Amino acid sequence: MIYPIVPYGQPVLRKQAAEVPADYPDLPRLVADMFETMAVSGGVGLAAPQIDLSLRLFVVDIPPIQLEDGPSAGETTPAEPFRKAFINPQLLSEEGEPWGFDEGCLSFPGLYETVYRKPVIHVRYQDENFQWHEATYDGYVARVFQHEYDHIEGKVFVDHLSTLRRAMLKKRLDKIAQGDVRVDYRMKWGVAKKKKS
Description:
- The chain has helices at residues 27-41, 139-152, 163-168, 170-178; strands at residues 45-47, 57-62, 65-66, 76-77, 82-95, 99-103, 113-117, 120-126, 132-138.
- It has 197 residues and is an alpha+beta fold.
- It has a five-stranded antiparallel sheet with strand order 1-2-5-8-9, with helices on both faces.
- The longest helix is centred in the N-terminal third of the chain and has 15 residues, at 27-41.
- It is globular, with a radius of gyration of 16 Å.
């Protein structure tokens, strides 16, 4: 099943998500649907709040890419495809000198902004069998984790921008919230979607 993506401006993106209970019905199907939705939408990460489910769950699927800047500049990171579901994840710590990278988000179609994040993270999460794992990620994988983790905490990537930059983006953000954007994947607009003539 392909879910529509919830755009900026919808309340679910500002709620701290609830933990996924061990008896959540048909969780493997939901995870598979999230991977499929992310793939057809052109993303590398997708959090449950972005499909209107306030759950502490996100999926990541990163192909090997060549970075032009940041702590892994000039390297392919990750060296192998990185595909994983994170259930009830915890961001234990972040380390290193923050580095800037242009981030986008399926909930903000067409918008890309430089966001500074620390390059090394230590995390804890459950897999689809609700077994706990701990891991350390760096570079681009760490960034994608941090971006998706923000979603389950009720934050979005523009929150990391300066007050001035957010003010400069207000008209564009308002247009996204009103549905006044071009997008080539399904979105779930709220009742306030602007009618186009």
